[in-house]
Amino acid sequence: MKMAFKGVFRKFREMKDDSKNKSRRRADRKCMHGRGRSHIAPESSPSPSASLVQESRWANLPPELLLDIIQRLEASQTLWPARRDVVACGAVCRLWRETVKEVVRTPEQCGLLTFPISVKQPGPRDSPIQCFIKRERETSMYLLYLGLTPALSGDFSKLLLAARKIRRTTSTNFVISLGAEDFSKTSDTYIGKLRSNLLGTKFSIYDCQHPCDHAIQSKGRSLRNCYSTQQLSSRVPTGNHNVATISYELNLLRTRGPRRMFCAMQSIPISAIQEGGTAPTPSTFRSCVDERCSLFSAAKGKDLKFGSSSPSEPLESVHDARDPLMLKNKAPRWHEQLQCWCLNFKGRVTVASVKNFQLVAAVEPCHNVPAAEQEKVILQFGKIGKDIFTMDYCYPLSAFQAFAICLSSFDTKPACE
Amino acid sequence: MASSIENNNEKLTLKSSDGEEFLVEKHVALQSTLLQNMLDSDCSSADVIPLPKIDARTLALVLGYCKKHADASSSKQGELNSFDSEFLKDMDMGALFNLVLAANFMEIKGLLDIAAQKIADTIKDKPHQEVREIFHVENDYTPEEEAAVREENRWAFEGFP
């Protein structure tokens, strides 16, 4: 009995420590000594001091209970707009935020988008995240929504990203933002941009954040640390980091045929799709311009043109793993009866368009990429109606990267067709 | 309240933080893992078990829940489910807080489950300012952090009817 009580008393003492209410503490002590009898608990009397007691007590909710509660909320609110409740919990206070961050997993791990940073994190490995893009011709805007189609998700489609097309004399720019209201590059909602060359055959994706800011969420990191260098102060001098290059092959013979496109993802090493590989996953919008990044320095200096890697280089295996991931469009096959080029979009694309494409990894044998990975459609984009397109993406691309690649397909390329 | 000395083997006495004593049948008390562990480790039921931090009002609720579940363990699950959903209905946040703490402390899994779920449901469909008010949580963000959090929320909430 004594042994058992020792444990219980320890537990009581722990509970007492987190309480700031002295009158309650006195009552407890009385109880421990076995003196008190039938005292009226302060909670049962609706006096003003009692409500004050309650107020301080909620703040002292034991962390394990808060975790349990937030886990329950997170597990039930998986669809937008209900998912916003999880974001709201993260805004309550530091402790709640830390707890939410502990509970919420990345899109790669759970297939769900939660915080805005989710659009910069790689998609799930197995089933793609299904989105659609609405084109607004009069405002030159492109809106990326989470959802199957506008008809199916209606008003409850979550706007993930918005882009505005700006034509210049020498190039076309697509400014990409978290919202459709502000496309200035100094805005907190600015994410990056897509810029074309003069001919519209080559596009560069720029990220406002350094691509190697891939501090994968570490459990031990305190929120204070996350925040001290984050946003506002550090986001103001917005960077422009070239994270990918998309090239459409010139069709000099002017014969009508399917486009050929290549994407060099400078920010994603080929190792991401090798056995056990990972893709960079930023955990905040913190930009770390000054941070040195050894992983990509090797890839940066190299000629990124497709198929240019020379296998005779020394330290071949090291270089191979750090090579940027290359994507190519899946070659459509010619359908004799229909007299057109066809690709199997598994029902997600319904209107024939030169813009439709499916991207797969373009690898070389020395990269040791599993066959299944080589077959996998990483990004698919296609038309389903007037100014409506679907976009399905998965690991290792993020929604931002996928959206930017799709935007390049919107820009007319007279030289490619 | 029965005197604790004459308790037979089938009963034990629990004492709330405000000194009220509750005579409880052993099989009801066994719903609590804490009490079960105490009884297992050679605990004589002649003793009064003090439960500081759990006031009489909360303890009465807790024991009501335990009794229902202990007595109905062999009966229909549906009946228990409807009891559970009625149990927390219209409970104010103060009582709910006391209850979840008591369930956590006494290790009553079923009660902890429904109380935590009820609290999670309370959070649903509310902006963070309202959650702060309900839970009386102090905003400890710096103005910069607060601005960043607002931005994040704008993205999450905008565009929905």
UniProtKB/TrEMBL annotation, chain A:
Disordered, as annotated region: 15-53
UniProt feature, compositional bias: Low complexity: 41-51
Domain F-box: 58-100
Pfam families for this protein: F-box-like, Tub
Source organism superkingdom: Eukaryota
Domain Tubby C-terminal: 119-412
Bias-annotated ranges (Basic residues): 22-38
PROSITE patterns: TUB_1, TUB_2
CDD domains membership: F-box_AtTLP-like (cd22153)
Sequence similarity: Belongs to the TUB family.
Name the UniProt record assigns to this protein: Tubby-like F-box protein
Organism of origin: Rhododendron griersonianum
Organism taxonomic ancestry: Eukaryota, Viridiplantae, Streptophyta, Embryophyta, Tracheophyta
UniProtKB/TrEMBL annotation, chain B:
PANTHER family: SKP1
Coiled coil: none
Keyword DNA repair in record: no
All copies of domain SKP1 component dimerisation, residue ranges: 109-156
Protein's recorded name: SKP1-like protein
GO biological process, one term: ubiquitin-dependent protein catabolic process
Family of the protein in this entry: Belongs to the SKP1 family.
Annotated InterPro entries: SKP1 (IPR016897), SKP1-like (IPR001232), SKP1-like_dim_sf (IPR036296), SKP1/BTB/POZ_sf (IPR011333), Skp1_comp_dimer (IPR016072), Skp1_comp_POZ (IPR016073)
UniProt pathway: Protein modification; protein ubiquitination
SUPFAM superfamilies reported in the protein's UniProt record: POZ domain, Skp1 dimerisation domain-like
Keywords: Ubl conjugation pathway
CDD domains, per database record: BTB_POZ_SKP1
Quaternary organization: Part of a SCF (SKP1-cullin-F-box) protein ligase complex.
Pfam families with a match to the protein in the record: Skp1, Skp1_POZ
Positions of the SKP1 component POZ domain: 11-70
Function according to Swiss-Prot or TrEMBL: Involved in ubiquitination and subsequent proteasomal degradation of target proteins. Together with CUL1, RBX1 and a F-box protein, it forms a SCF E3 ubiquitin ligase complex. The functional specificity of this complex depends on the type of F-box protein. In the SCF complex, it serves as an adapter that links the F-box protein to CUL1.
